[in-house]
Amino acid sequence: SLLGGRAVSYSTGLAALHAALTLLNPRRISVGEGYHGSHEVISVVSRLSGLQKLPLDCPAESLDAGDVILLETPVNPLGTAFSIEEHAHKAHSRGAFLIVDSTFAPPGLQDPLLWGADIVMHSGSKYFGGHSDMLCGVLATKRADWTKQLFEDRIALGSVMGNMESWLGIRSLRTLEVRVQRASQNSAKLISWFHAAMQASSPAVGSEEMIVQSVLKKIYHASLQDEPWLQKQMPNGFGPVFSIVLDNEEFAKVLPTKLHFFQHATSLGGVESLIEWRALSDPRVDRKLLRVSVGLENWEDLKNDLLQAFKSLLG
After folding, report:
1. 3-state DSSP assignment of residue 101
2. Is 69 within 8 Å of 90 (Cβ atoms)?
3. Which of the 8 DSSP states describes residue 60?
4. Which has the least CB within 10 A, 100, 102, 115, 267?
5. Cα gap 136→158, rounded to integer Å
6. Longest dimension (CA), the chain
7. In Å, what is the CA distance from 115 to each residue of 1, 71, 99, 153, 175?
8. Beta strands in the chain (DSSP E)
9. Tens digits of per-residue pLDDT, 164-184?
10. CA-CA distance, 276 to 189, in Å (whole number)?
11. C-alpha closest to that of 292 among 39, 101, 104, 122
12. Which helix (H) or strand (E) holds 291?
């Protein structure tokens, strides 16, 4: 009931993606930039099956029956969102399937099956676990025949969660809703503060607005989008992960070392706030970009921490 369908757990999120592609065995997969690990799994599957990778915005006519659209929304690392319903219609018009990676919007924020997804994927290591202490992947679908096949394939492939991870997962799911809501609210308040500061005209010398404008050049997050479908797709918040682009690469490299509440780490979804100079783990992204995963701390403490770090960058 948590995921809106029948769920199968795996040792990791990428193991779950591998299982979904093994189940569907598509000839083509349409996919955006997103998480680099997903592209690595696609590359492995491609060596075995000849799977052809297409861009996410490819024409519907490029897809045939049995092909797959893999939609990550909100997308890593930006935290911006795509319309699930639009991509479901595109896939189904060709007899293809839609897999939605909803890791950045766990249950309570988004139900992809409601908007036409055939399979929903989560890296449960993130929000399902929530305490940065377990590995997990999850697939959910409404099709009983697929669920049966996924369980049988999992036995053969061996990508089963360990007993300890399963116990930790049960522990964590008991607080999933309240953790995600708090983190999402914190994120929304921080982004609102950033956005207001960036929009201020002729800020006073030494003011918060001037400091923010001197360091921060762009924010990416679903809450800043205005498409009419978005509020329906994500009615309870837009997720705790967002990205910021700073004025220069040196600022982006140094900022994490100036923070006290944010740890510099590549993961996300835990109770603690994290920040990452994303180029360290994904060379495809803008080298001035930082990914922020907001935790459960007091949002004003996080704001003040960011503000003092910005000040230190300016000397």
Report:
1. strand
2. yes
3. G
4. 267
5. 13
6. 65
7. 16, 12, 12, 27, 25
8. 6-10, 28-31, 52-55, 68-72, 97-101, 119-122, 137-141, 216-220, 241-246, 263-264, 274-277, 289-293
9. 999 999 999 999 999 999 999
10. 20
11. 104
12. strand 289-293
